[in-house]
Sequence to fold (172 residues):
Amino acid sequence: MNLDSTPYVYDWDAIKSRMPHRYPFLFIDRVLSIDESELQANSAMIGKKVHSMKCVTGNELVLQGHFPDLSVMPGVLLIEMLGQCAMFALPESFHVNEKMPTGFLCKVDKCRFRSFTKPGDVLDIFVKCVNEKAQSNSLFFTFEGRIIERNTQKLVCEANVMACIEKIQSTT
Fold:
């Protein structure tokens, strides 16, 4: 498998230019697709799907201590990958100076870890927006997510994650 030939929407540099996260807490290597084919007519988000990728290496800072003799990606970081992938579903109209607003993970439901993630694994991360609501000065988006190890096609993790984004106040 040649990862360099995998078509993508955003590469590492483009992801860094848009996301507020930085090493060692940026867990998306490429955004492979953003699909609006199931977008609901009355929503800019519901039905939108994003597919991203993470190549797990032995150099991941967290794997140095989790666990030194059996390197396993922590489950909470798999959830973080789902959340970071979901941020790419946000419409461009949410961006300020081509940067995404900061999204905060505020809820995780129906989470299941199905297999271990180790160095050398290539993770395909899938999210689909299933709900949105506005409350006070915030927007809440719920995503169904799953992570699949590319080489074995094993389901690694599945969960529903909710992200909160503060509405941006226009200064004009």
